[in-house]
């Protein structure tokens, strides 16, 4: 019973704003033991090398930009990245938290669900509504699974989104910037929807995970 | 401050105008008339192949209108081609594909000058006269042939009237008339065919088909009937002339699927050319016509029609061919090559001479002298093709000192504007955004694809700006979401640019569901029109009556143009139409006749309302809400399926207004920047592009009777094409503001516009200079420059400085 009470009290403090998140900057001034400070260590460990490899695979090896095959490669690699790199750089209070398998699975499902609002957002950003809906959903899958480590940490850190927002933002900015090549009259295959935006999202994620701890 | 800004604005316009004077110069043409060059004595003595010529120019006759199965209804012409009594060609018309430059091409054989495209609109111009230039008409006159002309009066502006023994011009600018304009030409035909002995050359120019295209597109319901009408005219002429008469049916240019023309898309440049004579049966038809049965089923290439049917020739090739067949010298400025298939009509010796003559004439245009070689005819044709290519490319010469003067002035002004603007705006977020935006758009002018697809950049910037605002504020998620949905709907409304066309645009969906469209239209007209005038009785009455009038005019207009309208709306519109016409019985007549007086009444009533409202607000009887009243005028001038856009505009405006007042402290520069973004964004999503082809003429003639005023039509054309832009320009005045600082705010809001226009202008002028010999100069960069100039005159001077200051002066 007491356990139940405790949980519900945790639930009450759920917040999506930045206010409650303690980062390295205000670490010393204010120490709250109920809400231990969370931050990402500034190491090269967070550099997502697998995204380099995936981009190389997508552009040079895969058969005419096989976006589906890329997704199959992305999901396991992102999980590995989370377990061995990203989670190991994330500090809660003064310790590293062990990876929680149920949470890994829950956040996988959540990421999958997240693709639906993401598809809506991509359409709001100008993707065709009726034509190429599958391609748009595929793109949103890519973008969401790129954000997967951050999604896991959002769950892990009691929904304190503030610290993790920058990772989402970097992916969005990367995807948004890459749109610029679509109207060019070069008539290349890679200008077709959604290839440039997939690449842009990957680049955004690459930059985001590499320097996310430094901003 | 206001005075300085307006001075800068005007000076900037002057600078661009100077540049344009040097950039669109007159082409250098050779004066004087051509004579036979090779073996002139033999040539003068020989007899021509034909001795009578009938030219039927059908405006905007695209190649597939004559040859293609699904669209063509020229049954008689098909049978002639199948019998070998007519030879069909697809003639490439050099852009700009509008009537005046094309007529110059058809008659002189020269490539057009871009300025002609603009002069085509500004008709009362004498500089485009061909009095001094050599043409086949002139050569016919020199030979003492008698010519008669009936049709488009552009010909009568081009040529001295004494060329023609008899003539009658019809006006090409009254687009809404499909029938009378052609009947006025055809009614002369019986008499002319009876008195064939009295003339040698008969020229007819029909405009109806072009008018149908402008109103209803290439597949309009009026098209098959018009094809049949033209076909019967060809039949009538063909059956009444002898075998020494050459009949030629041709389009001066084509049209795109929407029915507009001016650019360089395949549809616009592919016009039909059919040479008809009883004599042709004795000869072998051109290679590509031999095993073909007309009408031809469509040739698809990558899912797109390429409009290539039968033999492909240049339209200017018509000129030397005609000269050869009628044994007249080839006009001096001709860049065409004799169509080889017609050489068999001449005897072999004569054919060789004619080809040499053509060769020589082309070479002399380039300033080269003929290297006399005894080459085979085929080799000569190859060489002539090379010459033609060189000649069509180097058609203009630029006046460099004037270019430099204009550019120099603008650069200085830009430096001043930047210095002045930043000294007022300070180094703030808004000034940074303004400069980034200006540089982005400026650099984009160097890429022909970004000029063609400029709407993509604006869309990209708009989404980026909303994203940035959301990330910056972190609050107001709901407001940003509403804005996003609104801009996405606007984005989905129309196609713009040339690269991608979606079939499922909201515009098309509404066209397919007229019921929905009309309920939305009526809803929009009344909600937008009555916005803000609900509180007091006088403004309500004025706005309500204007809305009702606007709605019933739009419905009547749609009925006349055979769009579907819900029945009860038809009845209401019918009743209102009865006020404006004496006709009472035939509904079609009632609508047709009531349209012009109704629109005229609307404009007069609108001005009256405006005056009443301004004076009433001065004495404090009612609120001075000019914005919603002006919106009614803008909706009146918009295409019917675009009217619901104004509803979305209204929602977006409300959301933005909240956003700016609640979160940005009504920052005047942010308001100004948002206005700038939305002006351009909605201009493109309203269906506009940077191509002359997409200028919409369908609402330029609202309330215009037969004897119209060119300036009025021009003004209305601007209003209908810039309707959304005007809306978003005036939107600045609806953001709440302290009344005391009104004029300072007004001036401050002009600064981002000034910086933007100056910086983009400098880049655009550099781009035009750098690409002056580029393939796309006439189809991409020059039209962009024209849009830039008209944006400057119309939006920046007339609307932003004129109309907007009135709205500000009256106040809210």
UniProtKB/TrEMBL annotation, chain A:
Keyword vocabulary terms for this entry: Endoplasmic reticulum, GPI-anchor biosynthesis, Membrane, Transmembrane, Transmembrane helix
GO biological process, one term: GPI anchor biosynthetic process
The species this protein was found in: Zygosaccharomyces rouxii
Pathway(s) of this molecule: Glycolipid biosynthesis; glycosylphosphatidylinositol-anchor biosynthesis
Protein's membrane topology: Multi-pass membrane protein
Protein name as it appears in the record: Glycosylphosphatidylinositol anchor biosynthesis protein 11
Annotated compartments: Endoplasmic reticulum membrane
A molecular function GO annotation: mannose-ethanolamine phosphotransferase activity
Family: Belongs to the PIGF family.
Classification via Pfam families: PIG-F
Cellular-component GO terms for this entry: endoplasmic reticulum membrane
Keyword Ribonucleoprotein annotated: no
Chain ranges passing through the membrane: 43-61, 67-84, 105-130, 136-155, 167-186, 192-214
Automatic annotation (TrEMBL), chain B:
Record-level Gene Ontology MF annotations: CP2 mannose-ethanolamine phosphotransferase activity
Residue ranges of the TM segments: 400-420, 432-451, 457-473, 541-560, 594-614, 626-649, 669-687, 708-731, 751-773, 785-810
GO cellular component, one term: endoplasmic reticulum membrane
Domain GPI ethanolamine phosphate transferase 2 C-terminal: 395-811
UniProt xrefs under Gene3D superfamilies: Alkaline Phosphatase, subunit A
Pathway participation: Glycolipid biosynthesis; glycosylphosphatidylinositol-anchor biosynthesis
UniProt key word ATP-binding: no
CDD domains assigned: GPI_EPT_2 (cd16024)
Membrane topology, record value: Multi-pass membrane protein
Sorted UniProt keywords: Endoplasmic reticulum, Glycoprotein, GPI-anchor biosynthesis, Membrane, Transferase, Transmembrane, Transmembrane helix
InterPro entries recorded: Alkaline_phosphatase_core_sf, Phosphodiest/P_Trfase, PIG-G_N, PIGG/GPI7, PIGG/GPI7_C
Domain of life where this protein originates: Eukaryota
Protein's cellular compartments: Endoplasmic reticulum membrane
One Pfam family in the UniProt entry: Phosphodiest
GO biological process, one term: GPI anchor biosynthetic process
Stated role: Ethanolamine phosphate transferase involved in glycosylphosphatidylinositol-anchor biosynthesis. Transfers ethanolamine phosphate to the GPI second mannose.
Family according to the record: Belongs to the PIGG/PIGN/PIGO family. PIGG subfamily.
Name of protein: GPI ethanolamine phosphate transferase 2
Natural source organism: Zygosaccharomyces rouxii (strain ATCC 2623 / CBS 732 / NBRC 1130 / NCYC 568 / NRRL Y-229)
